[in-house]
Design a protein that fits this description.
The structure is a homodimer of 741-residue chains. Chain A is α+β, with helices and mostly antiparallel strands and 741 residues long. In chain A, helix 3 crosses helix 15 (599-611), helix 8 (427-448) crosses helix 9 and helix 12 (551-557) packs across helix 14 (585-595). The longest helix of chain A is centred in the middle third of the chain and has 32 residues, at 260-291. Chain A is 29% helix and 25% strand. Chain A is built from 17 helices and 30 strands. Among the domains of chain A are: 2-168 and 219-230 and 237-248, Beta-galactosidase, Chain A, domain 5 (Distorted Sandwich); 287-307 and 584-741, Maltose phosphorylase, domain 3 (Sandwich); 319-441, no CATH class. The radius of gyration of chain A is 26 Å and the shape is globular. At the A-B interface, helix 11 of A face helix 12 of B. Chains A, B: Belongs to the glycosyl hydrolase 65 family. Chains A, B: Residues 174-194, 714-741 are annotated as: Disordered. Chains A, B: It comes from Paractinoplanes hotanensis.
Chain lengths: 741, 741
């Protein structure tokens, strides 16, 4: 039994032996994953452990597999791409007087793992008494270098009064557990995706069998003498000794395979673990200086928002011209696919906290434009139709009503382009990729939208963010985002102006889609969440039940399209119908709750988003962290309590604190400057290392470099939460682990 | 090369060797299939022939197979049922001086097959010169007995100046060709579905491996001496001789396996082929006396409507308490499933032409009520939700937007119940099954429909007959049929009265579904039919393009719901948007075209329906005949030019002939009487063997038993066809085989 220890500001500590039975083993593997966006090492224990899911994820290294449908349809993707477990260099077996070090045997006196968010390292300390009675002390350290994209390193130290033998492996196609079959959200696990190509005693070359992607993994051990054996699938370095063995292990991965891998590995081995760790800390010091969020009054949130930012950074930092998957490189969930939340959540947060990796991430989309154009043609549309889920660019969604039909992904990409450009002024990016992305996505809308005979334009039969209400007409989020897309591209301005924004007269609320408010109400006495596991889509799709923020998301990203009164009425109406069966929901509801003065509710939603993986219990995040929810913690704090808005390229703030927070300070990047916004219960202070013009509570102001701009805050009365069928847990209860309210 | 010879009134003749390359082999196997609703022998050549699809179909003998989805969903069927090829007793191999009789070798001097629609037999005559130069004359005859449900019989006669050897088989799990993978409409072909259970020299017992359904097939040969060998999968009777071999072969099938099979076979063998053939003719004489349709002026239609009626009879006659599949027992298309068109088309025709098999067919539905109730619960609904496609009762549809969402199948079943009861007065059926079917289907509508706050009731997010416009609100066919269903069951009359019947004000037409007429128009310059093979559903579902009659069907089955002017405007509007990518479309368009005075157009649609399989060319019907289109030929003639309507339990006629027909006479059963309606260009004459009250042109009249009731007809002017994106071929051109207009 293990648990995540009480919150520490910069550390995530697990105490006890992670148990596969309660999901803590898988969950811990995700929480303690290390990655740099290019290479990811899942937080597997060094020794092979039944029930865990080994993961060495190399961004965009995938295998293909066929998709079969009971009833085929034109344009249904015929194959998909699935992330594979790359050559595993984390695996280290230990034998003590010939007995295997296995936590399921003997006695574990102490087992602790610590993820250091400033150091960027994972440390593990174990004190174990073998079945034979030998006391063993083990300490391992790990990092995946933010500075050297191809490199990971381990330090391993074991002490025991016994004969010790360590087998340190680099292994291809290790055995994987079978996937669950009872949940539509689980992913494929491909056995033996690689065929060996070449090997020697310090590197393995292999290739995925069908997608034919080559990878080379190189390994070096220093600090102890060992012997090496190798087969096409395994390099094993074996060291023996009495009393103590300590060594460092260096890994480098290149794909497609090239010779540079040796130089990278050798440089790392030569410089040593301590040097790599020092570089790592320097890199992270820089990151935190420009991105940290300080939260006084809620240690859990303080820890969680940093944990979230750290994992968002790990997902994106060195992704370069590759996608940022929904699970980052922490697990094989969603088959390793990238979905719309990369642009709508992850890049939103990275734009302000680590903008350097946002341009490449959007250029990756641009690099797949050819496929997106082809897909648009296949769908009978113009411009580009980006995939709902993919690794390399092709549409990999096997259920089109909640995949291909969610055309809003195209407007989300355009929105991310606009945001990135506004926040950085990166004109070169716009020339190389941004303008074309805007134009091609806008063209899509010109072909999918149409005018009725009253001159109103519509987008019919698409699916918005809410996957419980599919194939409706005039989804408000889609229409508002398409409108912005068209305007930004300067294409068919009349179409943009005429797009229907459905509004229910009598009820005086906007409609998530045309006719939504006239659909039958859901019977919320049913509490069997997620509803999709016990209710047919035929039942869900035409009821007033909302899986996740949709119209509420629209009110966050298009605040200009709603009056404050409308927002208030809309929020109350949809709050009563939203069940948050998606982790993408809570952060957005937090933002709007904060804006509308439901401050404790906002705090609770913030907690739901921020603590989901870290303290979610069960198997939440077992197949990889919810990276968008990690980004969502930042969104909830900065856009919620900081009131940051960025519509139309303008930066604005409207800070307000919930009753239980004393102070919130956040750093962000804006057009080359590093700003800090400090919110207390009675004031907000803006500082920056460069001049920045922005709006404070609607008024244009400027903070000058090195100066301080301070405003008093009127204490807002906390408005009670509107009725919800599934109120969030109180954040205090999360923290105390007392379960549901 | 083979072709169907010019039309003969009672015969369907194929001349030439059917070629697998042009689809004629498969098509001929369907056209010449013999069946009685219980046992079906596909029209395979006796000798094994590469490229054909062997078929011995035993109603409801199916195997199960798993359905896999790229993305699973709650309530998606986990397995399906697939018709299997049962033990084949048609296979007879011939050797001439040791050379195999194979039409692909040697020289075929003559090859002719004749289906005799009055005799109920298939005769084949071949004159073949072997590669060795021997002239061989072969004649085979076949029947599947309408009188003895389990029995089929063959007579085989070969003459040649040579040593002859005949191997006559009963074979289980013969080799089958692979299915095509490029068309979503193709079916699974299960290899080796059976495991042997027992065998001796005159019967084989086997069992499907997974569904565990047992079958016993018994065989006997008479008329020649032979030797028999048997294995678990094959009984082979071998006869040799010089100059001539003639024998008769008798087959009997029982499933589940029982001992009665031997008695059935022995009785058939004792009575002999000629006796079986005489019984067959008597049975068919009775059938035709009460069901024949005479068409003067169009020999192709004359032949085709009898061909269609014959196959409808073959599909239903002895089906008993089993489903009538969409392909009857003529092929494995749609996996052998029964869909809504059984009730909406096939039972409609059978109700008036052979009512004795309609009650059992509906009792079969009643027998599956438990499963339908369970399915309704699974969908969150009350009452019964019958499957979109099934053999044994469970939902087997793997694409729910055009399957489970088509809830109208439930109202179609209710409609068939009402029609059958009105036409027969079978009150016992109503007590045993009918009333419960009406009540349970009506309950479904009470749970799926809901009231808006203006007091209008809606059924949202369902799919009507038109599969190119899925998951819309208030599909007019569904709502009108649900309304009738509710009223007939006497359940929630207010709901029935309040159901929305969508109407487009300005355009002054009814809407197929709410908002349909405001959807974008389809670009009909594309002629690549069927559209579903080259257009994504995302593109199709929200355009004004209609796969098949939907609103037009509603105007046929609910004539009371529309004024004549509305029908006229609606017909023109939807005619311009309907592409007839379903064979279910043309017969209904024929009916409405006739009613509205587009008489030549009606004739053309009649031809499209009637000639589809018989003269469709290509591979139309290769995997089984379109039994609903066979029924549709009758519908087009009798409901179109005869003007038969039966809404509300009243029989009515409004006869009119198209310019090219001189006379139409049709027989039908009504409440125990056998009526005949004879329409000429200037009069209609009603006769009956019992008193029948009905409406003629809206006026209530009565024909007394043995008397003649005659009315003059006003010659109607043929109105020009409204514009259509895909006008039907002219019937004259079908007949002349000159291809598209």
């Amino acid at each position: 039994m293990s648990e995540i220890a009480p919150a520490e500001p910069w550390l995530v500590r697990e105490v006890g032996t992670p148990d596969e039975q309660d999901g803590a083993l898988l969950q811990g593997e995700s929480i303690f994953a290390l990655a740099n966006g290019h290479v990811g090492l899942r937080g597997n224990l060094e020794e092979p452990h039944l029930g865990g899911m080994p993961g060495t994820f190399l961004n965009s290294l995938f295998e293909e597999r066929d998709l079969h449908y009971p009833e085929e349809g034109y344009g249904f993707p015929e194959r998909t791409q699935t992330v594979v477990n790359g050559p595993n260099g984390k695996r280290i077996s230990l034998f003590v007087d010939g007995e295997r070090f296995d936590l399921r045997t003997g006695e574990v006196r102490r087992h602790e793992r610590v993820l250091d968010l400033r150091a960027g390292t994972l440390t593990r300390e174990v004190e174990w008494v073998s079945p034979g009675g030998v006391v063993v002390s083990l300490r391992t350290e790990r990092l995946v270098s933010f500075v050297r994209p191809s490199v990971a390193a381990l330090r391993y130290s074991v002490r025991a009064e016994a004969e010790l033998r360590v087998e340190s492996d680099l292994v291809v196609d290790e055995e994987l557990p079978s996937p669950r079959e009872d949940d539509p959200r689980t992913s494929a696990v491909l056995p033996d995706p690689f065929e060996p190509v070449a090997h020697d005693d310090d590197k393995l070359v292999c290739r995925t069998r069908r997608s034919e992607l080559s990878v080379v993994a190189a390994v070096a051990h220093t600090g102890a003498e060992g012997t090496v054996s190798s087969t096409p699938e395994l390099i094993r370095w074996t060291a023996t000794g009495r009393g103590e063995i300590t060594f460092e292990k260096f890994l480098s991965y290149h794909w497609p395979a090239d010779d540079q891998v040796v130089a990278d590995r050798d440089a790392a081995a030569r410089d040593g673990f301590d040097t790599l760790a020092a570089e790592q800390r320097d890199y992270l010091d820089d990151f935190w200086a420009g991105a940290d969020v300080e939260v006084d009054g809620d240690p859990d949130i303080q820890q969680a928002v940093r944990f979230g930012l750290f994992h968002v950074l790990q997902a994106g930092a060195q992704a370069g011209l590759h996608p940022i998957p929904a699970k980052g490189l922490t697990g094989n969930g969603y088959d390793g696919h990238t979905l719309w939340d990369t642009e709508a959540y992850v890049l939103r947060t990275l734009t302000y906290t680590h903008p350097g990796c946002v341009g490449p991430a959007l250029k990756w989309r641009h690099n797949t434009l050819g496929r997106a154009r082809d897909r648009a043609r296949e769908l009978g549309l113009d411009g580009a139709a980006f995939p709902w889920r993919t690794i390399g660019g092709p549409e990999c969604s096997g259920y089109w009503p909640a995949g291909t039909a969610a055309l809003h992904v195209n407007a989300d990409i355009a929105d991310a382009v606009l945001r990135y450009h506004a926040a950085t002024g990166d004109d070169e990016f716009m020339r190389e990729a941004g303008h074309e992305l805007l134009a091609e996505t806008a063209k899509l809308w010109t072909s999918v939208a149409y005018f009725d005979d009253r001159g109103v334009a519509h987008i019919a039969g698409v699916t918005g963010p809410d996957e419980y209400t599919a194939l409706m007409d005039d989804n408000i989020y889609t229409n508002l985002m398409a409108q912005q897309n068209l305007r930004a591209a300067g294409i068919e301005p009349r179409l943009a102006d005429c797009l229907s924004i459905p509004y229910a007269e009598g009820r005086e609320v906007h409609e998530q889609a045309a006719g939504f408010t006239r659909l039958p109400e859901w019977d919320f006495t049913d509490h069997d969440y997620p509803l999709m596991l016990s209710h047919h889509y035929l039942n869900l799709y035409r009821k007033q039940v909302v899986k996740q923020a949709d119209l509420v998301l629209a009110m966050m990203v298009r605040p200009d399209a709603f009056t404050l009164d409308e927002k208030r009425r809309n929020f109350a109406y949809y709050e009563a119908r939203t069940v948050r069966d998606s982790s993408l929901s809570a952060p957005i509801q937090a933002v709007l709750a904060a804006e509308l003065g439901h401050l404790r509710l906002a705090h609770d939603y913030l907690a739901e988003a921020a603590l989901l993986d870290l303290r979610g219990g069960g198997e939440s995040g077992g197949d990889g962290l919810h990276i968008a929810a990690c980004a969502g913690a930042w969104i909830a704090l900065v856009m919620g309590f900081g009131g940051l808005r960025d519509h139309g390229g303008e930066l604005s703030f409207g800070p307000r604190l919930p009753p239980d927070l004393k102070r919130l300070a956040f750093h962000l990047h804006w057009r080359g400057a590093s700003m800090c916004v400090t919110v207390t219960r009675d004031s907000v202070t803006y500082t920056s290392d460069g001049d920045v013009t922005f709006r404070h509570e609607g008024r244009e102001v400027e903070v000058r470099a090195g100066e301080e701009l301070k405003f008093a805050i009127d204490q807002l009365e906390d408005l009670p939460a509107p009725p919800s069928p599934r109120p969030p847990r109180r954040h205090a209860i999360w923290a105390e682990g007392q379960g549901e309210q």
